Amino acid sequence: MVGKDCVAIASDLRLGSQSLGVSNNFEKVFNFGHVFLGLTGLASDVTTLSETFRFKTNMYKMREDRLIEPETFANLVSSTLYEKRFGPYFVGPIVAGINSKTEKPFICGFDLIGCIDFAKDFIVAGTASDQLYGMCESVYEPNLEPEDLFETISQALLNAADRDALSGWGAVVYVITKDKIVKRYLKSRQD
Amino acid sequence: MDIVLGIQVEDSVIIATSKAFTRGISVLKTTDDKTRVLNDHNLMAFTGESGDTVQFAELMQANIQLHGMREQVDLRPKAIASFVRGQLAKSLRSRKPFQVNVLLAGFDETTNLPNLSMIDYLGTRVDLPYAAHGYAAFYTMSLLDHHYRSNMSVDDGLRILKMCSKELSTRMPIDFKGLYVKVVDANGIREVDFE
Amino acid sequence: MAGLSFENYQRNQFLAAKGHGVPKATSTGTTIVGCKFKGGVVIAADTRATSGPIVADKNCEKLHRLSPKIWCAGAGTAADTEMVTALISSNLELHSMSTSRAPRVVTALTMLKQHLFKYQGHIGAYLIVAGVDPTGSHLFSVQAHGSTDIGFYQSLGSGSLAAMAVLESNWHEDLDKEGAMKLCSDAIQAGIWNDLGSGSNVDLCVMEVGKDAVLYRNHLTPNVREQKASSYKFARGTTAILKEDIFKLIDVEEETIHSEAMEVDA
């Protein structure tokens, strides 16, 4: 979600195989410098892709002698996914960050073959995406301060996850401003 | 319907695997060891398609031992988990993937910490305090959820394992012929008497 | 793009057979149109992207630039229209640099159809290609399998029937620029209102002989969201927090200090 000079990215912490919950500590949000990537979908591909992007952003950092910016990273994600057009990774990625040069907030989402969905307001993905669309569409408002954005994104996530049997088991929220990142673990239902 | 269980306690990891080797409706062997020693402080337990399991476990064993010999440094638990996961994820993209699920029990001599990783044939890896593959998970997870404490001793761990074993023998539809139990700690890997 | 990797194809078939659901790609269940007028050509598109019955993007861009004066509207699998367009655009630029000539619409069309034919329809891009070049103004369409059409007016996508109804009844030979713009936006609106796969706004692009192409992003916005009746802002402290970590981003400055000369052993 985008706020006033800030962005937030959040995810639940469940890893399960069908109905059986396996872990309540499976983080799906990764950071590459000041760019954040959320990955939902097949857990194996989530790990594989997070490792691929760690490799690619590290190579970028060495070649360019600077960190990758959100817009650039979004195109890296897109081309990496489209490379596997006819044998895709089963993921639903979202990118969030603040451009360190322009200080503009940036978020976007992708489908599994890398079509970018640029949005001004919010992006959702995962098994609870239908519920999240509903929550965000009603609860979101533009230009929220970081603290208010935290409440809005947390409530959107928590309430959407409560209407999805496969989501929940803890949640984590990152609120990103240009010089500070706050990571919070939320208290959530455990059923 | 093999049983593979792992419990991480304060300074070690306990691994339990069923002794029965079954094919179809027959139990072919009652002394089957579903584990392989990867190096001095790392043990792998496995289940899955028969044939694939031992092939895969011994492939990992050979590669990890080769690394130890070449580099004169043994791979640490997290490195082994990362390597094994990578191999399974790669295998999944091949013509005939290994259908093997594993538990990795290890003790890191550098940090002096035990480690338990669960990896399935899709390449899903999680590091957990206690873990089980297959149907055994459905019967044992509730017991472990209830009784597990992170600062338990090996004996405490074995006591919970006893409860799990009892539950499994009463609820599982076939006799799994008991469990082999192994402990991985600072001193290496040892088998313990369990019955 | 050094060729597409089929690495995961077999794995996914295996996964699908094992009963794992296959995720859906975004498609631009779309209305796109194009129409010629004397001295130029107009193309237009709606701005809705869907994934199944869900509206994935309410204001996406379906008008792509192949070269400064050749534009194209895309329908079908969103990622495919995006990527095939970017690829051809880049090859067109290289081609025009090596030939020292402005790129032609037929060249773009040929490159597109040969690429799409090679992939036997698996790249799901349905495009309306239009533009002006030294030989005049042109309007074409390409299907995913590689077949192409020429015409004074074209429509493609799930809303193409609604749009074509408007084009067929209102198009005439001596249309001027304003008339063509009106006809195209009317045709898109037919899609927006009558086709479920299309919606939101009208994007438009006008290409005139001897002039720069002009993109009218959100030319019409007949579906502006109403101001919300009340705010759902939550009071600070509503959400219970278990743990908080704060990371401060700091600038690290590196300074290289040059000494007189490097010391070397004799």
Give the strand line-up of the largest sheet of chain C.
10-1-2-11-12
Sketch the major β-sheet of chain B: 5 strands, antiparallel
Oligomer: heterotrimer
String of helices and strands of chain B: EEEEEEHHEEEEHHEE
The CATH homologous superfamily of chain C is termed Aminohydrolase, N-terminal nucleophile (Ntn) domain
Radius of gyration of chain C: 25 Å
> Given the structure, what is the number of helices of chain C?
5
* Rounded mean pLDDT score of chain C: 92
Distance between the termini of chain B: 20 Å
Q: What are the segments of chain C in which pLDDT stays under 50 over at least 5 consecutive residues?
A: none
Q: Which chain pair has the greatest contact?
A: A-C, 51 and 51 residues
Family (chain B): Belongs to the peptidase T1B family.
Pfam families (chain B): Proteasome
InterPro entries (chain B): Ntn_hydrolases_N, Proteasome_beta2, Proteasome_bsu_CS, Proteasome_sua/b, Proteasome_suB-type
GO cellular component, one term (chain B): nucleus
Question: Which features does this protein show?
Answer:
heterotrimer, B: alpha+beta, Glutamine Phosphoribosylpyrophosphate, subunit 1, domain 1, five-stranded antiparallel beta sheet, 4 helices, 12 strands, 34% strand, C: 266 residues, proteasome (chain A)
Structure description:
Chain A: It is found in: Nucleus. Chain A: Keywords: Cytoplasm, Nucleus, Proteasome. Chain A: InterPro entries: Ntn_hydrolases_N, Proteasome_beta_3, Proteasome_sua/b, Proteasome_suB-type. Chain A: One of its GO terms (cellular component) is proteasome core complex, beta-subunit complex. Chain A: It holds the Pfam family Proteasome. Chain C: This is proteasome endopeptidase complex. The complex is a heterotrimer of chains A (191), B (195) and C (266). In chain A, helix 3 runs antiparallel to helix 4. Chain A is globular. Chain A is of the alpha+beta class. Chain A has four helices and eleven strands. Chain A has a single domain, classed as Aminohydrolase, N-terminal nucleophile (Ntn) domain (Glutamine Phosphoribosylpyrophosphate, subunit 1, domain 1), CATH 3.60.20. The model of chain A has no long low-confidence stretch (mean pLDDT 96). In chain A, the strands form three sheets. Chain A has a five-stranded antiparallel β-sheet, covered by helices on one side. Chain A has a four-stranded antiparallel β-sheet with strand order 1-2-10-11, with helices on one face. Chain B is an alpha+beta fold and 195 residues long. Chain B has a single domain, classed as Aminohydrolase, N-terminal nucleophile (Ntn) domain (Glutamine Phosphoribosylpyrophosphate, subunit 1, domain 1), CATH 3.60.20. Chain B has a five-stranded antiparallel β-sheet, with helices on one face. A five-stranded antiparallel β-sheet of chain B has the order 5-6-7-8-9, with helices on one face. A two-stranded antiparallel sheet of chain B has the order 3-4. In chain B, helix 3 runs antiparallel to helix 4. With 266 residues, chain C is an alpha+beta fold. Chain C has a single domain, classed as Glutamine Phosphoribosylpyrophosphate, subunit 1, domain 1 (4-Layer Sandwich). The model of chain C has no long low-confidence stretch (mean pLDDT 92). Chains A and C meet through helix 2, strand 9, helix 3, helix 4 and strand 11 of A and helix 1, strand 4, helix 2 and strand 13 of C. Strand 11 of chain A pairs antiparallel with strand 13 of chain C.
